[in-house]
Design goal:
Layout (H helix, E strand, L loop, with lengths): L5 H14 L4 H17 L3 H23 L4 H34 L18 H16 L8 H9 L12 H4 L11 H34 L6 H32 L17 H5 L4 H10 L17 H9 L18 H14 L6 H12 L7
């Protein structure tokens, strides 16, 4: 069921009318039923996998909450199980083919095992949400959710297609009370949906054919055309991803739920570091909180890094990665691109902090003056 289809519009309208007629418990049940219907409309196997993931994470959460002895083990068992689900359904073929190609470089050739599995709808989002819930529960940052609340949190249908990743500590408290219709939420939600649809249909979908035409036959175009296509591609990706996120945020807002923004004017960033604090915020903050800040360090060292190269050094298990180590020298790692970007940033400096506000102010000056009645 696509966001831009008539079936989705009918589903959302019917859901919204019925939602506000129910009490708090009824609303949660409807959210759960609607989410599984939305997921199962693609394939009943997708809904079955969602149910398995929900039962698995909820069970691990119960053990973490109830058993002092087994809580650490239950957390890690849940994390491993979530990563396994993600690995099998989304990354197995990639790693299998990469391993085969790697052995081929040494003269060992064989046909890699390939699983003919469709990637389940929303798999990445509810898997990462499950991991963050287990970790936060283990560290006492979130209260253990009841089964219905956790099932709604994992399956919340507006974010199924393109996220964002929702945190349990911000979403679960919103399930404690009945949601009431409010015109303010309706106006803000519709505004977000319209802007999201504009980014998706007018910006992204219009630029995609132009970009694909150049990228499909780059030899037929000059350097200027290739450069322009790359610039267009940046706007295409932003419009597609940010557009979907805004639609999700708008739908959730109409129903009375607050979902944090996933993009914050990333193309107005003043530096590369600033860009990644504005782009796909839910994922970058998830990686920061549950991966980078938890990387192992030597005994007695503080868990902090001076720059991106220190993080890569930890991941690659080398004492320190020097800027002159090339992309090929690191076996295909993207550190070289990161280092070049950071070097340029240090050389040129950041864009002034007030650049964004000045730019927005200039855009406001271009708006026509309001007309009186």
């Amino acid at each position: 069921m696509h966001f831009l289809s008539e079936s989705f519009l009918l589903f959302a309208l019917a859901f919204g009318v019925l939602f506000f007629l129910l009490d708090g418990l009824g609303q949660k049940v409807l959210l759960l039923v609607g989410s599984y219907y939305f997921c199962g409309s693609q394939s009943w196997l997708f809904a079955a996998l969602l149910a398995v993931s929900t039962l698995m994470n909820y069970g691990a959460g119960v053990v973490i909450h109830e058993s002092e002895k087994w809580r650490h083990t239950a957390m890690w068992a849940g994390i491993v199980a979530n990563v396994a689900l993600l690995g099998v359904f989304k990354y197995f073929n990639f790693f299998s083919e990469s391993f085969s190609q790697g052995l081929g470089a040494f003269g060992v050739h064989y046909s890699p095992a390939v699983l003919k599995l469709a990637i389940p709808l929303g798999l990445s989002f509810y898997t990462l949400q499950g991991i963050s819930y287990l970790v936060d529960l283990r560290e006492g940052k979130v209260e253990r959710a009841g089964f219905l609340d956790y099932a709604v949190y994992a399956s919340f249908w507006p974010k199924f297609v393109a996220g964002p990743i929702i945190r349990a500590r911000s979403f679960l408290p919103q399930l404690r009370s009945r949601r009431r219709f409010q015109w303010a939420n309706f106006y803000l939600g519709v505004e977000s949906i319209i802007y999201g649809l504009f980014l998706k249909t007018t910006l992204s979908d219009y630029l995609a054919p132009q970009v694909n035409k150049v990228y499909a036959s780059p030899e037929a175009y000059g350097a200027a055309d290739a450069m322009l296509a790359t610039v267009f591609f940046t706007f295409q990706v932003y419009g597609d991803f940010a557009g979907y996120s805004l639609v999700v945020i708008g739908i959730a807002r109409i129903f009375g739920y607050s979902v944090r923004p996933n993009f914050r004017r990333p193309l107005f960033a003043t530096s590369i570091v600033d860009f990644w604090t504005r782009w796909h915020i839910s994922l970058s903050s998830w990686l920061r909180d549950y991966v980078f800040r938890r990387l192992p360090v030597a005994q007695g060292e503080q868990r902090e890094w001076r720059d991106v190269s220190d993080i890569y050094a930890t991941i690659l298990h080398v004492p320190h990665v020097e800027p002159d180590q090339t992309f090929d020298g690191l076996g295909g790692d993207s550190l070289a691109f990161v280092q070049v970007s950071l070097a340029l940033e240090q050389l040129l400096g950041d864009v002034p902090d007030d650049w964004e506000s000045k730019t927005v102010a200039r855009l406001d000056e271009l708006k026509p003056a309001p007309q009186g009645f």
